[in-house]
Amino acid sequence: MSLAGAHQYLFYRTYLWQLNTFGQKNNPRLVALLSNSLFVYFNLLTVVVCFQLATGYRLKIEKTFAIVGLLLITSINYFILSYDNKLSTIISKFADEDEIQKRRGTIWCWVYVIGTHVLFFGAALLL
Fold first, then answer.
1. What is the reported pLDDT for 13?
2. Which of 32, 47, 85, 116 could, after both became Cys, cross-link 14 (CB 3.0–4.6 A)?
3. Spatial distance between the Cα atoms of 36 and 113, rounded to a whole number of angstroms
4. Total-model pTM
């Protein structure tokens, strides 16, 4: 699976989990979009922190820049994943999974989510 396909798959699985757990009342499309954006944001911040650790050069990221960066990532994700009813295309792309593929996909999603958090907070603590 390509990186773009993995990104879509995580969005799909987050959307389905939200939909099955809470129904439409919590807007599963928005929750999936925001969670994917936050994971990408954590990944980028982890790269920045690792750069700082490797070079010893300190980058000062202003709060305004960090907020604008997160909003930019969320906007890009919106156009990639949700705009113009792309969710239905993504759902149809992954809807024919069998149980083994679903189980394997669930494991990889959890590995990515947990790994993203561990690497981000671990790198932040080292900084």
1. 92
2. 32
3. 10
4. 0.84
